[in-house]
Write a structure and sequence with these properties.
alpha/beta; 16% strand; 463 residues; seven-stranded mixed β-sheet
């Protein structure tokens, strides 16, 4: 283990003094100081190992030797402004094109998912000459001001909704307006977008784009109902707008069955713009926008040059190529299917045992476990979810986080090398924590409350 410069307490005190306090730490009451990582494991300053169920950014595993080798070799040879001619950027673009529908054949490389979504917004506005954007409720698309404006998850806590932004219902078949028992929830939720479009047009406004994560993450690890995206795209395009698929959390095979999560909606569905980020650089800042020749042509025709100093530089593209190689050579999509299916199956068995588990959903290594204090009313188990996450970290050295509108969903987006044994360990520990914690003794405190509601009062935990 490398020698530390500061003790954990010294590092924490310096961070509190020097780093903006809106930049929050995981487990803020007792942060973990990580000094080394390999694969799906993190190691603290004392050498204690943690299982990482959080870091979807380190897509093929922390400090993968093939990624490190590619990065250092290219860094030793050349790293330059991407306006110089170089093979890596075109080789990488060509490899990405092979994973996408043929229609998506023009690429813009940037440094982050936020940059990618901001550029997608510009592309849509330039192509359509319209301004208005439709987004899903609870969506988050990035931290730039333009993206805060189209992220209900953020703007509701800030200046509020702009008149050119329109929010469609989240297609959540567990607790949304149309649920699992609906005969065609995909069509029903798409029709809410159609109604919204008609309302926008009545106001004399015009749509530039519909933005959606292919699998909404901040919304609570949501799996879109089948047929939803195709119908929405039909309605949006009829109104002169474009369909933007945000793959920043879910691309590069996390779903397992497909390389891109939007492909879950069917072979015939193709977005007009796809944005990608987090996993593509395995922790290195690398992101991209893919679009059509026609949309790219309209962007060029405005006469304003677009350049990104670091986007698509030789080192970034060497890393991106190495990530694609590892995904293929190590069959990480296959691993996502096998391990993800096993994890979901184990969690569903746990659901039969523990009433507090309201829903288990996911595909591949994109999984959500929603806790509720009342299954019938689907009352969010917010504090219980925080309590479970806290116990997993303190007792089992397992890092998970919570998400969803009420922070009641334990989410799993681990590195793609996550194993069967890792999945079994996580479920076994959750079972132990729920079994030990959710005992009938809590019901004796107040007869009118069930034991899960009592737990929400007994454990006011923040993570």
């Amino acid at each position: 283990m490398a020698e530390e410069r500061f003790s954990k307490q010294e590092t924490l005190e310096m961070r509190q003094r020097l780093i903006g306090q809106s930049c929050r730490l995981f487990y803020s009451e007792d942060p973990v100081k990580i000094v080394k990582a390999r694969g799906q494991y993190l190691f603290d300053e004392n050498g204690k190992r943690y299982l990482d169920c959080i870091s979807n950014v380190q897509h093929v595993g922390h400090c993968h030797p093939a990624i490190t080798k590619a990065a250092t070799a290219q860094m030793d040879l050349l790293n330059a402004n991407s306006r110089f001619l170089h093979d890596n950027i075109v080789l990488y673009a060509d490899r990405l094109a092979a994973t996408l529908p043929k229609k998506l054949s023009v690429f813009y490389f940037v440094n982050s998912g936020s940059e990618a979504n901001d550029l997608a917004l510009r592309l849509a506005e330039q192509y359509t000459q319209h301004e208005d954007v439709i987004v899903l409720d609870h969506a988050y698309h990035g931290h730039l001001k333009s993206l805060i404006d189209i992220s209900p998850y953020k703007f509701r806590k800030l200046a509020g909704q702009k008149e050119w932004v329109h929010v469609a219902p989240l297609p959540d078949t567990y607790r949304g307006i149309y649920r699992e028992d609906h005969p065609n929830p995909g069509q029903a939720y798409a029709d809410t977008v159609k109604d919204l479009i008609e309302e926008i047009i009545r106001k004399g406004r015009k749509i530039a784009a519909f933005f959606a994560e292919s699998l909404p993450s901040v919304g609570g690890q949501i799996i879109l109902p089948q047929g939803y995206s195709s119908k929405v795209a039909e309605y949006v395009r009829s109104a002169g707008g474009l369909f933007v698929a945000d793959e920043i959390q879910t691309g590069f095979g996390r779903a397992g069955t497909h390389f891109w999560a939007f492909q879950l909606q069917g072979e015939d569905f193709c977005p007009d713009i796809v944005t990608m980020g987090k996993p593509m650089g395995n922790g290195h800042p690398l992101a991209c926008v893919a679009t059509t020749v026609e949309i790219a042509g309209a962007f060029t025709a405005n006469g304003v040059e677009y350049f990104n100093t670091f986007g698509g530089n030789p080192v970034s593209c060497a890393i991106g190529l190495a990530v694609l190689d590892v995904i293929e050579k190590e069959d990480l999509r296959g691993n996502a299917i096998r391990v993800g299916t096993h994890l979901i199956d184990l969690l569903k068995k746990l659901q039969e045992k523990h009433e507090i588990i309201g829903d288990v959903r996911g595909i591949g290594l994109f999984v959500g476990l929603e806790l509720v204090t009342d299954r019938q009313n689907k009352t969010p188990g917010t504090k219980t979810a925080a309590w479970v996450a806290k116990r997993l970290k303190e007792e089992d050295q397992i890092c998970v986080s919570t998400d969803g509108p009420w922070e009641s969903v334990l989410k799993f987006k681990p590195p793609m090398c996550f194993s069967m044994e890792d999945a079994e360990l996580v479920v076994r520990c959750i079972d132990r924590i729920l079994t030990a914690t959710l005992t009938p003794t809590y019901n004796t405190r107040r007869n009118s409350m069930n034991r899960f509601e009592m737990l929400e009062i007994c454990f006011p935990v923040k993570t």
